[in-house]
Amino acid sequence: MTTDKCMVCTCEDVNDIELREAIARGCRDLESLKRYTGFGTGPCQGKACVTLARRLLSEVTGESVEALGAITYRPPVQPVPLRFLAGDEE
Amino acid sequence: MRSIKYHRPRGYSCGTGKCASCLVRVDGTPNVRACVTPARDGMVVETQNAFPSARRDFFAVVDKVYRRDFDYHEKFIHPRVLTPLYNAVIRRMAGFGKLPDLKPISRSRVRPTIIKREVDVLVVGAGPAGLAAAAAAAEGAATVLLAEEADREGGSLLLHRDVGGRDGTLVAAELLARVRDAGGEVLASSVAFGCYLTDGVGNKMPAPGIVAVLTHERIIEVKAKALVVASGYHETPALFPGNDLPGVMGARAALILLHKHGVLAGQRVALSAPATRHAGEDLAKAGADVVAWGESPVVEAMGGTHVERVRLADGRELRVDCVLYAGDETPRVELLQQCGAPFVASGWVLVPDPSKLPPGVFAAGDVLGASSPLDAMASGEAAGESAAAFARTVRPL
Questions:
Q1: What is the pTM of this model?
Q2: Which residue has the higher pLDDT, A23 or B95?
């Protein structure tokens, strides 16, 4: 049995209905939408869901893809065990 | 595993270690990406985020109660006096796995070392574009380091049986030989995880700055005169109810299963869009029954803990055990953004503007927008030549 929600961000379990609701409440740019719903903040850090979220945002607000822009990708962009970051320099 | 909020069933979906749908607990360490972790004899693999099991998870009731949405900004905050109880319950139900066993931590007492390297050209990604770029740069007399995240070089070449009339695997092997013959160094299982435009003590550096690469049990800090980013793309899921059911996956993910691991993703396969056709043809050749070819999009996937049926836009309902999506691929622009590259729109995605990349930074292949392996190779050759030429103009680092 599936329900009628479509998953946008599978890491944080954020669906299209939640995103549309957040946009209706005033999250009209990617960063606000990300902070309110938590999409793109899971283990993958928003690799593909950002495309779906941007598309929803663009369809609802009429803003262009370019104006909506990207989210900020901070390193590490792939998981790195902390012990490596705490390593000794040669 | 199960998802963190709704406890929905999840499974293999990207095949490249870029999502969180196949996380498992391995030998006491939580959140290990199953799709990129080789199996070993005696390995203890456990499911996570599920009680008592991934097949039957009591917490899945959340998905039924909150059929549409779950707004945690408004729920479980009143009455205030119950907040600690709510928090205790939510912490138990949500989150990624449980803390690791102490054993594996105490076993590794030796601190890993961080190595510093200086090269003329660093190439990130050893797909068709990255291999061609590394070959061209190395032949241009530059010292070249090529870092590939997967355990085998070739990228999309390994998934194509016809690249200009030849098997992609052979094309990849030839390009790899070209890189090595010209003196290039190739590191597989090595991911460039960040580009830092500051030195170790906070002074600003021009792009490409320092690129950090996690390689075999250590980090390499690479200072390159020129950087070629050939990082490819992330598959973007299609939006339909049930798009996260196990058995629903990216077309590339299914090709990785087939061509890299010799595993058929399903017996009865539905393609959700025409862009998945190549995957459909390869799966059909390998013995799968492709019951829908994408001419009518999938509008819903249904099933319990695995996809069992799909509904198409034309109203047909089909019994399947695998659904493939493709289209709207998201260019993997993370490193380029960290280098300061500006983006332009291409459909629903952003791609780097090749004419406005910072000096010394080059992009090639699918990160500039989806292309064929042959086009990616051509774009890699050009980027590799430019990077080597640029490196010659830079003073010693």
A1: 0.94
A2: A23
Measured between beta carbons, which residues in chain A are less than 8 angstroms from residue B4? 11-13, 42
Residue where the block lists tokens 């262009």:
A64
Contact list in A for residue B245 (CB cut-off 8 A) is 2
DSSP assignments along B135-188, one per residue: HHHHHTT--EEEE-SSSSTTGGGGG-S-BTTB-HHHHHHHHHHHHHHTT-EEES
Q: What are the chain A neighbours of B347 within 8 Å (beta carbons)?
A: 65
Predicted-complex ipTM score: 0.94
Question: In chain A, what are the domains?
Answer: 7-85 (1.10.10.1100)
* Per-residue pLDDT tens over the stretch B179-235: 999 999 999 999 999 999 998 788 999 999 999 999 988 999 999 999 999 999 999
Q: Do B337 and A73 touch (CB under 8 A)?
A: yes
Which superfamily is assigned to B114-234+329-393 in CATH? FAD/NAD(P)-binding domain (3.50.50.60)
Question: Residue B333: phi, psi to the nearest 5?
Answer: -100, 5
Question: Which residues in chain A (42-71) have CB-CB distances under 8 A to chain B?
Answer: 42-44, 47-52, 54-55, 58, 64-66, 69-70
Residue B379 has pLDDT above 60, yes or no: yes
